[in-house]
Structure formats: C-alpha cells, structure tokens
Amino acid sequence: MQIDLSNRTYVVMGVANKRSIAWGIARALDQAGASLVFTYVGERFEKTVQDLADTLNGDHYVLPCDVTSDEDLEKAFNTIGEKSGTIHGIAHCVAFANKDELEGEYLNTTRDGFLLAQNISAYSLTAAAKAARPFLADDASIVTLTYLGGERYVKNYNVMGVAKASLDASVKYLAHDLGKDGVRVNAISAGPIRTLSAKGIGGFNEVLKEMEEHAPLKRTVSQEEVGSTALFLMSGLASGITGEMLHVDGGYHTIG
Ligand code: N5H
Which residue among 19, 21, 96 has the greatest number of ligand 1 atoms within 8 angstroms of its CB, and so is best to mutate? Predict the structure, then answer.
C-alpha cells in the first residue's frame, strides 16, 4: 500500500545537516507528497536547512524557532497556522546536553546541565505540542526521537538518558491529553547513527561496533529506516498507535 500525504503539512524540527535523522524523516515525508515546514535554531543552520529543503520535490519553507522560548514557539506555530492552515504532524528531533556531561559519571551532572538537557530535550516536546494544538488536524501525528539510554543505563549517555526518560513519559501523558482530539503521539527509539549531534562524542564508535556484533540484525540502522518508520507513524496505517515507543535498532534493545 502506497502512503499518500499530499495536501498534508508536517513540521520537521531539528535538521542540522544532511546526516540528521530529521532529514531522513523529511525525505520520507517529501517522497510521500507531504508539504514540509522546517524549524531550526541559530543562524549557523539557516542556510544549510534552506539549501537542503530546496532539494525536495514538494512545497516547503523554513522558519527559526528556539524551543527554549515559549514566545518563539508560539510565533513559529502561529506563522505555520497562518501560512499552511492545518498541521498534520510534527517530527520533534531536538536534543541537547553539555558535551562535558556526556562522559564520566552521571553523578557529576550539574543542576544547570540537568535543567538544560531537560528543557531542550524533553520539555520542548510538550511546549511544541501546546503551541501547535490550535492548528493540529483531527488525525495529526506527533513523532519524537528517543534512545535506549532513557530505558536503561548506557555508558556516557548520562544526563541525556534521564532527559530521554522524561521525554518517554511525556509521550504517554501527551498521548492521553491529545488522544481526545484524535491526535497521536509516539516515539521512535533509533539505534546509533552517525549524526552531527553524535560527532566528537566519546565511545560512539564502540557503540556502533557493539550493534554490529550483537544486534539481532548484526548491523546498524540507517537514516532511511528511521525515516520510513516515521512515515508509517505519520500515516493512516498507524491510526491505532499512540503513546508507543517503536525501536528501530535492529532489535538491539531485546538483548540483555
Ligand atoms: C551512548 C551514547 C554516546 C554518548 C552520548 C551522546 C549523546 C548525544 C545526544 C546529545 C543531544 C548530543 C549533544 O548535545 C552534543 C552537543 O553537546 C554538542 N554538539 C552540538 O552542539 C551540535 C553542533 C548540534 C547539532 O547538536 C545538538 N544536539 O544540538 C549515545 C549514542 C550511542 C547515540 C546517540 C548519539 C544518541 C542521541 O541522543 O543522539
């Protein structure tokens, strides 16, 4: 069955470059005929995101949005509401933690570092859903990205693991609140993928190697595989799924 998202608008938050998982999701949605809106933070990413978006087939535009600002979120979603009318889905692909807190002992996490990771990586989903709510279609689908380190200890993931645990719980509470509007909220737990976010992070290569050796599929997963899963969750094929965490990790989470 072909997924057709023509005449539907999806907001993709968090493309940083062509390796971003968000970009894999955007390409999958574009191929299904969707209209796309990209949000980015920081002038540094504006041109990259605009240039990438311009390679797509379908309608698209790009907007700045700092997820730590309610005012910015409201402004961005009001603009999207005005320009596009209804929003049929949001791909929330945003996370941040101080690099020096992604190694060593979790115990050394600072209060500021903890709150920063929670603010950008977890609360931003709730804040975005709140700002988007007036414009969400009655079958809209929100998808966020999580990681195994929120479910169990993963070396070096530290403060980000605790933020993902908070994000995972947010998915369930938001699924409940928005479910009465017909809106679904789900998370994709992706296996490790070499993105800009992962760049320069200690131990990343070992995590990739561990996947190749021990995941049931004996390999890592691609940006495209996460993209096609997001496309499924955004489509009517997933109309009965909400509050779910779908692992796209070659089965790695099943091993103990
Ligand atoms: C167990 C691991 C490896 C260790 C932990 C990695 C955590 C990565 C997530 C966060 C979001 C990375 C991060 O915030 C890096 C920043 O401090 C510095 N980088 C940047 O500012 C770049 C320029 C921008 C684009 O990045 C962001 N985030 O804004 C986990 C890995 C095996 C899997 C993984 C890499 C998971 C994940 O959550 O991304």
Answer: 96
Instruction: Tell which atom from ligand 1 comes closest to the C-alpha of 199.
Output: 19
Instruction: Report the domain count for the chain.
Output: 1
> What would the two tokens of residue 188 be?
């994709």
Query: Which residue has its alpha carbon closest to ligand 1 atom 17?
Result: 99
CATH number, domain with residue 126: 3.40.50.720
**Is 4 part of a structural domain of the chain?**
no
In the set 153, 157, 173, 252, the catalytic residue is 157
The model scores a pTM over 0.95:
yes
The model's pLDDT over 23-58, given as tens digits with 9 standing for 90+, comes to: 999 999 999 999 999 999 999 999 999 999 999 999
Q: How far is CA 121 from CA 32, 97, 212, in A?
A: 28, 8, 27
- 157 labelled catalytic: yes
**Residues contacting 247, CB < 8 A, separation 6+:** 148, 188, 189, 191, 253
The complex's ipTM works out to 0.98
Question: Residue type for 72, please?
Answer: D
